[in-house]
Design a protein that fits this description.
The chain has 2 domains: 159 residues, Rossmann fold (3-Layer(aba) Sandwich); 138 residues, Rossmann fold (3-Layer(aba) Sandwich), CATH 3.40.50.980. Helix content is 41%, strand content 22%. It is built from 12 helices and 15 strands. Strands 7-6-5-3-4-8-9 form a 7-stranded mixed beta sheet, sandwiched between helices. Strands 2-1-11-10 form a 4-stranded mixed beta sheet, with helices on both faces. Helix 2 packs across helix 7 and helix 4 crosses helix 5. The longest helix has 17 residues. The protein is globular, with a radius of gyration of 19 Å. The chain starts with a helix and ends with a strand.
């Protein structure tokens, strides 16, 4: 399989009762995720979303983001994720580059109300959709789309889109500029993502029994491909944290029995420096990963002491994720 939607269908069929998403008391199994994606896909089709169109999203890490991501792929659309720290001016500037037909915005964000006039000035935009409350005037609500009836006609439309799916279809647009440049829109196809993540899961041995802490940004390949697509392909569970807090993350690892933890060096260092670090039971971890910047040797050593496997990963957005892994003991 070289299309992420086909991978989701296969995982939902193979592990229907396996937990897929855990967030703030909400627990969804893979069959429930698949069904929610169908309803949202029906809602997108009712709004006239065509194959190849781009949908924009500005939202912290939460279940709604994953459902929108997967529903876009089910109907053959491409999802462009925007950094939650962008100003209204930056959102408009980057939206002009990718011309979204629909734009999803988390209503809880301070910038949401400022975006109403900004998005209205984007020629390609047909509709803005609020994730949560309050919705600016004229915007639709995501909850209403998720409640779209799955009529026989809607199911037929979804099936038709799935039959048209191609590995070279655009899946994600990720804005990337490295550490020095102005962000540019990189288009990742389904083949890009599935090929990289299938190799990753095979190399790292990720399985349906694994539990991954997803607290990295979804507009970046770390959240969208490494972790989310990694779970879709393997059937693993995603335990989500909307905003990183070092001790809250440690608490989630302990209470949700996380097995795989990937972070940037600064996140690891904040946790290791906390005087409360030793109070948390992290014995469930079987793999630790770090990426995004050079990592001090002491940090790698402490990561290796936490789990049987520790890796420093190197990747790039245009490759849809990680490219190579260095083990803790490598010279």
């Amino acid at each position: 399989m070289t299309h992420l939607n086909a991978c989701l269908r296969a995982t939902a069929a193979r592990y229907p009762e396996q937990e897929a998403i855990v967030h703030a008391g909400q627990r969804l199994h893979w069959a429930e995720v698949d069904a929610a994606v169908d309803r949202l896909a029906a809602g997108l089709l009712a709004l006239g979303v065509e194959r190849g169109e781009t949908l924009g999203i500005l939202c912290p890490t939460q279940p709604a983001y994953i459902l929108i991501y997967l529903a876009a792929m089910r109907v053959g659309a491409t999802l462009a994720g925007f950094n939650v720290h962008y100003t209204a001016r930056e959102v408009r500037e980057y939206a002009a580059k990718v011309q979204p037909a629909l734009f999803f915005v988390s209503a809880e964000m301070e910038v949401a109300q400022q975006l109403a006039p900004t998005l209205a000035g984007i020629p390609s935009l047909r509709q803005a959709i609020a994730i949560g409350e309050p919705a600016p005037p004229g915007w639709l609500q995501l909850d209403n789309l998720l409640a779209t009836p799955l009529t026989a006609a809607a199911r037929g439309q979804i099936t038709a889109r799935e039959m048209q799916a191609q590995p070279e279809d655009g899946a994600l647009i990720v804005f990337t500029g490295g550490i020095t440049g102005t962000p540019k829109a990189a288009l990742l196809t389904h083949r890009n993502i599935v090929s990289n993540i299938a190799a990753q899961n095979h190399h790292l041995g990720w399985q349906a029994e694994d539990r991954l802490l997803l607290h990295l940004p979804m507009n970046h390949v770390s959240g969208a491909t490494l972790l989310t697509a990694g779970a879709v392909l393997s059937g693993a569970t995603l335990v989500m944290q909307a905003r990183f807090h070092p001790l809250h993350a440690l608490d989630l690892i302990a209470t949700e029995r996380i097995t795989i933890l990937g972070q940037v060096p600064a996140m690891w260092i904040m946790q290791f420096l906390s005087p409360d670090f030793g109070r948390y039971d992290l014995s469930s971890l079987r793999m630790t990963l770090v990426s995004g910047a050079p990592t001090p040797a002491e940090t790698m050593q402490r990561m290796a002491a936490l789990a049987p496997i520790a890796h420093h990963a190197w990747g790039l957005t245009e490759a849809a994720g990680m490219v190579t892994y260095t083990a803790a003991g490598d010279g």
